[in-house]
Amino acid sequence: MKNQIRALVAQALSRLDKEGALPEEVRPEIVIERTRDPRFGDFACNVAMTLARPMRTKPREIAERIVAALPASPSVEKVEIAGPGFINFHLSEMAYRHLVPLILEQGPAFGRSDLGQGRRVQVEFVSANPTGPLHVGHGRGAAYGATVADLLEAVGFDVHREYYVNDAGRQMDILATSVWLRYLELCDEELTFPSNGYRGDYVWDIAATLHRDHEETYKVSAREVFEGIPPDAPEGGDKEAHIDALIARTKTLLGDNRYRFVFELALTTILDDIRDDLAHFGVKYDQWFSERSLVDSGAVTRAIERLREGGWLYEKAGAWWFRSSDFGDEKDRVVIRDNGQTTYFASDIAYHMDKLERGFERVIDVWGADHHGYVPRVKAALEALGDDPNRLDVLLVQFANLYRGGEKVQMSTRSGEFVTLRQLRKEVGRDAARFFYVMRKCEQHLDFDLDLAKSQSSDNPVYYVQYAHARICSVLRQAAEKELPTDVTPGDLHLERLTEHHEQALLRTLSRYPEVVEAAALHEEPHQLAHYLRELANDFHTYYNAHPFLVDDAGLRDARLKLILATREVLRNGLHLLGVSAPETM
Fold this sequence. Notes:
The structure is a single chain. Helix content is 51%, strand content 12%. By secondary structure, the chain is α/β, with parallel strands linked by helices. Strand 8 and strand 9 form a beta hairpin.
C-alpha cells in the first residue's frame, strides 16, 4: 500500500513537472510513512516540505498543488493537508479488502519485492574459530546473520552467505597441542595440563579417537615434552609463554607430518561438528572460506605488498606495522611479526580485499560485540588499499545470557564450562531458539529465559505466534468435520461483510507486512519482523475469541475464512523468514 501511495505522489509530481511547476533537475525523494495517529489518516508524505527551498514557496502551497495533481484512486478515500505541509492519505475500506485476495493469490511471494534489483551482497556470519563446539553466543550470531541474509534476499538482493574458517594460526596450534597432551594422558603419561589449553570434553574425545586408531604411535614421554619449558601461570610463570613453548616442542617432537595429522584431526572433527550444528539449526552457507587458502593463493602476500607500495607500512623492532592510525584507528597494527610470521590481521586484510575483488557491492560482517575495536582497523586497511570502506558494514552481536529457574547459567569457553548450541537446541527446540535470538536488536544484550522458551503459554512469543497459525488450521479441520465448504470464492466477493472492529484491525495489520519486511531488511533488524508477527498473532487471537468463523451465513463465512487464510499465509511467510516452522497442530 505504501508503494501505491508513493506511485500516486510520483504521478502528481510528474504532472507538475510537465506543466513547468517544478524547478529543473529537482527530483525529490518521495518518503511515505504510516501515521501514528489514525485521525491523520493512514499514510503521510512530507515531499512538499523538501521542495520548499528549491521552489522558494511555502510548503503548504506546494502541498495544495500536489494534491490537486493527484490522480484519482479507488484505494484513497480522502487526502488532507496538515500542519506546515504534510499530505495525509486516508485509505478506503476497499483498499484493505482488496489486500485479502492479493495475499491469497501471491501466497509465499507476498511481502517479497525486487527492491534490491539483484545487487550482490555478501553476508559473513558466525565464523567461530574451529577450536570447540558452537556455544549459545555463536547461536545468536547464527540466527541473526541467517535472518538478515534471508530478509535481504526477500527484498531482491543477490545474497551470498559465507563462513570464514580460521584454520590457521595460534589458536589452532593451541587446540592441536591440547589434543596431543590429552592423548599422552590416555597413554598413561602424567603431566600438568597447561592453564591456557583447551579443556572441554570434546578435546578428550578427539584425543581418544587418536589413541583408539593409532594406539601409542604418537606417544612421547611427558618428561621430554616439558623439559626446559618455562613455568605456567599457576607456578608463577607466564601462561602465554608456557603454551607457546609447548606448541613449539610439540611440533619438534612430532615432526611436520605427524603434527599436521593431529592438527587436521582436531580441525576436521570440530569443523564437521560445527557444520552439523548449523545445518540442524536451519543455517545454510554458500561457501566455507578457508583462511589457509589466502596464504596458499598468495592473497596475504599481495595485500601486504599493496600496503607497502602505498607507503602504509613501516618497520619497527623487526616487525612490520600498518599505519592504521592515519585512518582513524587508535594505534598502528602489526601485519608481520618479528619472527617473519604474518598476523591474524594480515589474513583479515587479505580476506576483505578478496571479498571486494569478487564483485560484491556490499559486504556485511556479523561479529561478536567483543570485536568492536577491530572495525576501525579493517576499514582503515580497505581505505589504504584504495577500496571504499563504506562498502563494509559490520554488525556487532551482543552475547546471550541464559537463565534457568531465574538463575543465570555460568559459562566459560576455554575451560569447557559452557552450554553448546546443540544443547540449547535440544532443550528448547530450534524454533524457540531462532525466534528468541532475534527478538532484540543485535547490539542489545539478550537474556534468554530457558523456562519461558519451553512454556506453552501466551507469554512465550514463539508459541503464541505458532499457535495462531495452528488455530487457523484447526478451524479448517473443524469445517471439514462439519462438512462445511472451505473453498472460498475468488476475488473480493463478500469481503464487504468484514465490518467488525477486530476484522478491520486485522486487515490493517496484514497491510503492513511488506513494509515490515522491507524495513527489517534494509535496517538489518530482524526484531522488527518478530515483533510484527507477535502483533499479528495477537490481532488474530483477539478476533478468534470474539467472533465465530464457521457461521451459517455462507457469505459471511466465506469472508471470514478468506481473512484468516490470508492471516495464515502472512504468519507462515514471516515465520519462514525467521527460520521458524509454522505447525498445523499444537
